[in-house]
Structures are given as structure tokens and as C-alpha cells.
Design goal:
This protein folds into two domains: 195 residues, Jelly Rolls (Sandwich); 106 residues, Arc Repressor Mutant, subunit A. Helix content is 45%, strand content 15%. It has twelve helices and ten strands. A six-stranded antiparallel beta sheet has the order 1-8-3-6-10-9. A hairpin with a 2-residue loop joins strand 9 and strand 10. 34% of the residues are buried. It comes from Aliiruegeria haliotis. It holds the Pfam family HTH_18. InterPro entries: AraC-bd, AraC_XylS_family_regulators, Homeodomain-like_sf, HTH-like, HTH_AraC, HTH_AraC-typ_CS. Keywords: Activator, Cytoplasm, DNA-binding, Transcription, Transcription regulation.
Length: 336
């Protein structure tokens, strides 16, 4: 990745492809995830989804997204071109090129093209955080629960833009290593943002080492039937003290976090393999497939079988599109 910061967002081949698709469709195509994810009703039921929303004045995407109860996962958003409006009334604010937004689970979503602007193009990533990301997910500026990070450094803008493109590119492939590459670039984005925010407030939060050790113990063997007491013994804490610290630094209880990690891994395996669901339930620590299905449904809103069926239908379409896409996925001025 070089350090050139000059690029023309209007030359992004992905944007031009999406605009062309929208020009020939009067409604969102359900079998085209690249376009369907830009409209209300799309089910963000995977561990990571990325894309770009090129809103043009009076175009088919020129509406305000309104999710009063937010979403199950997180969304990080980078404005690429134009101006966006977030919220209205006294809490309303606008974002321009280089500004980043981060929506935690259940935070209200209300945003669209700002009045007076001809466009608002923004790249976005929907994700479920990994174990140790929590300290990076707490920017100092928040409005109604939505995190905001402003900067006008062209070099940093170019770097983060490329990382967003990289996440989008790798997340559309169906093998485990590509998904790991997508998460690698997402981690780079979140670390870069956390560093920018830290420099602005100079007060980084450090997660308690015993909580990190507990996370490591759980995540290194998800098939292991482990409870709070065993984890607490491992890190030399009482179960109640561990539970208190865990909620403070991770935002959820030990068992809830363990189940979330298991479900995330199960989602990945359902997406990229044909392992039987009964075997998968044992791989992630549940001897009873019915109980595994209940836990999975509680986290994703659907059964493991339904989840697999949806992604069996979607993946061939994504693979075909990737084959027709420029290998870099970058605007020409960035791909050279």
C-alpha cells in the first residue's frame, strides 16, 4: 500500500457497477447481495458484510435509513464523497469525506443524504467483534449512542479507504482464509481509528489482563464444556468477581460472550463448509443439537439450517460477480 492520497471516488468501478444495476431495476433484486444490502429488509445475519452505498439526489437510494432499535451487530461507516445527515433536530449533525461513524448494537440508525448535497457515498462494514476489540470500540465523541470520528488528513483518509475496499473484496469470498484477511483489514481500521481517537483524548483504556486471559482460555477451544467457575479458577478470581470484571470490560457476561464466540464460529463453518449440523454443534461445545439451534437462533434470528440455506443461495451469485470485478476492487488512481 503506497502513500498516495489523490484519488477520484467517482471512478470507483464498484460504484459505477451499482449505479448501472440500479438504473435497470425498479426494485431491489433479492438475489444480488451487493445491491439488496443497500435497501431496507436485508438480513444482516452473517459475521461480516461490507459494501458501498452511493446515494445520488433523487436516485433509488435517496431515502433515510430509520432503524429505531438499531441492529444486532456493529456498523462502521466511512464517508467517501458528498455529505450525509445523521439524526435530526437538536442532535442532528452532518458528515463529510474522511469522517467515520460507528453504530453499536441497538443504537438508533437515522441517516441519509444531507439536504443541499448532490450525493452521499459511504462505505460500510457490518461485523460481530472479536474477543479483544472492545477497547477499540469506544470513541470519545458520541451523539445519541453513535460514535463519531472526524479527521481531514488526506493520507489517513486514503489508507482507511483502501482498508475498507480490502474488507469488501475479501468478505465476498467463501473460504476461511479470505474471511480472515477481511477481519485482518477490519482490525487495522479499528486500531487506526482507536489510535486517532487516543491521540485526540490521550486516555486509552486497558482491559484487565485477567479478563484477557479468560477470553483466551474460552476461545482457544470452543468445543470444551467450560463454565464460569472453571474460568474463574484459571485466572485466580472468584466467579462473582470475574463476572463483574467481564461485564465491565467486555459489556456482556462470561457465558453470553462464550456463546457469542461459538455462534460466530458456527456461522463461519455453515457459510464455507458442508459439515452436518449435529457434528457442528459438538464442534462448538453443544452435545444437544436442539439446544445449539436455540442458542444459534437467539443470536442470529434463524436456525442453523435456515442460515446455511440462505448462504448456499447467495454465494454463487457473489462468486460470479467477483470474477467479473477488477482484481483490486480499487479506483484506477489507487490500483496503479
Amino acid at each position: 500500500m503506497d502513500e498516495r492520497s489523490d484519488f477520484d471516488p467517482s471512478q470507483d468501478p464498484q460504484v459505477n457497477r451499482i449505479i448501472s444495476k440500479l438504473a435497470y431495476s425498479s426494485s431491489p433484486p433479492e438475489d444480488d447481495a451487493e445491491v439488496a444490502s443497500l435497501f431496507p429488509g436485508f438480513r444482516f445475519d452473517v459475521r461480516l458484510v461490507a459494501g458501498i452505498t452511493p446515494i445520488e439526489k433523487d436516485g433509488p437510494l435517496d431515502f433515510f435509513v430509520d432503524r429505531p432499535n438499531g441492529m444486532r451487530g456493529w456498523i462502521v461507516n466511512l464517508t467517501v464523497d458528498g455529505t450525509g445527515q445523521v439524526f435530526d433536530g437538536d442532535t442532528g449533525f452532518t458528515v463529510g469525506p474522511g469522517d467515520l461513524l460507528m453504530f453499536p448494537p441497538e443504537a438508533r440508525h437515522f441517516y441519509g443524504r444531507a439536504e443541499g448535497s448532490q450525493k452521499w457515498w459511504h462505505r460500510w462494514i457490518y461485523f460481530q467483534p472479536r474477543a479483544f476489540w472492545k477497547p477499540w470500540l469506544d470513541w470519545s465523541t458520541q451523539v445519541d449512542g453513535v460514535h463519531l470520528l472526524r479527521h481531514r488528513d488526506e493520507g489517513k483518509f486514503s489508507e482507511i479507504f483502501r482498508l475498507f475496499v480490502g474488507v469488501d473484496r475479501w468478505s465476498h469470498r467463501d473460504d476461511a482464509l479470505s474471511l480472515d484477511l477481511a477481519f485482518n483489514r477490519l482490525e487495522h481500521i479499528l486500531l487506526s481509528c482507536a489510535r486517532l481517537d487516543r491521540d485526540a483524548r490521550n486516555s486509552p483504556e486497558v482491559v484487565d489482563e485477567r479478563v484477557l486471559a479468560a477470553c483466551t482460555l474460552i476461545s482457544q477451544d470452543l468445543a470444551r464444556p467450560i463454565g464460569v467457575r472453571e474460568v474463574a479458577d484459571h485466572v485466580c478470581l472468584s466467579p462473582s468477581r470475574l463476572s463483574s470484571l467481564f461485564r465491565k470490560f467486555m459489556g456482556v457476561g462470561v457465558v453470553q460472550w462464550r456463546d457469542a464466540q461459538r455462534v460466530q464460529y458456527a456461522m463461519q463453518m455453515l457459510r464455507i463448509s458442508n459439515v452436518p449440523i449435529k457434528s457442528l454443534s459438538q464442534m462448538v461445545g453443544y452435545d444437544d443439537p436442539l439446544y445449539f439451534s436455540r442458542v444459534f437462533s437467539r443470536h442470529t434470528g434463524m436456525s442453523p439450517r435456515h442460515f446455511r440455506e440462505r448462504h448456499t443461495e447467495i454465494l454463487p451469485t457473489l462468486q460470479t460477480e467477483m470474477a467479473a470485478t477488477d482484481v483490486s476492487g480499487l479506483p484506477p488512481s489507487l490500483a496503479e
